[in-house]
Amino acid sequence: MSSKFNPVRPPDKLETLDDLLSQAEHYAWFCMKNSGHMAPTLSIIGEKGPLMFCPQSLQNIEEKDAFATAARLLCIALNATAVVIAMEAWMKFSTPGETLDTTEPPSEAIDRQEVITLMGESRIGQNQKILNIVRSGNHKFFGLVDATPKLDSFEGRFARILPLQDPAFEHRLLAEAMLKIKGVDIGKPGTAIRLTPHRR
Questions:
Q1: Which end of the chain has the smaller Cβ count within 10 Å, N or C?
Q2: What is the chain's Cα-based Rg?
Q3: pTM of model > 0.85
Q4: Is the Cα dihedral 138, 144, 150, 152 positive or negative?
C-alpha cells in the first residue's frame, strides 16, 4: 500500500448513495495524501445536483451539534436523496466475546484506532464504511485500510440526517431561511460547494 496514489477510482457519475460513498472515499484519500488530515465533509445529492459542505470547525460538542443540525437543514432545503458525512474519528472495537465499554470515550481508550468514517443514507436505507488510517513511524500518512465491521445500522448525532419523505415546499423554504441565519447560504459559493467526480 502506498499513499503516492489513490487506489479508489472516483465514480463516473453521482446519482446514488454508492456513487456518493465512492466519491467520499476518493476525497478522503486525496485529503489524507496531501495534508495528512481530512476536514469533516457533508456530501449531498439533491435537486440542484451534487453539493459539498464543510463546517469551519468541529472542535467541541456544540460545533458537532451545529454541524448535524446544518446537515439536516441542508437535506431538507435541497430535497436530498442521498447524503454522506465523512470525518476523522477515534474508534474502539470490542474483541470477540468481549462487551464493549460504552462509558469510556473512544478518544481516551488505550487501544483506540484512528479512522475515517463514511456515514451514508438514502431513502432506501443506510450504508457506511470505516477506514483505518495507517501512519508510518514518523506519523505521516501511509494509507487507508477498510475496517468496516458488520453493522445493521448506526446511531448518534450524525445518523438519520436524511428525511424519509420529500419535504413540503414551505419546509424547504424555512430550512433555507434557517441556514442563512446560521451563515450558510446554499446559493453562495464558499459555503456550499458544487461537487463533481474527479477525473484521472
A1: C
A2: 17
A3: no
A4: positive
102: left (phi over 0), alpha (psi -120 to 50) or beta: alpha
pLDDT at 199: 42
pLDDT tens by residue, 9-65: 778 888 999 999 999 999 999 999 999 999 899 999 998 888 888 887 778 888 888
Q: Which residues contact 101 (CB under 8 A, 6 or more apart)?
A: none
CB 81 within 8 A of CB 46: yes
pLDDT at 107 (0 to 100): 59
CB contact at 8 A, 53 and 193: yes
Find cell 477525473 and name the residue.
Answer: 199
The DSSP annotation for 30-89 comes to HHHHHHS----EEEEEETTEEEEE--S---SHHHHHHHHHHHHHHHHHTT-SEEEEEEEE
- Residue 130, helix vs strand vs coil: strand
Residue 74, exposed/middle/buried by CB under 10 A (0-12, 13-18, 19+)? buried
> What CA–CA distance (Å, rounded) separates 67 from 176?
15
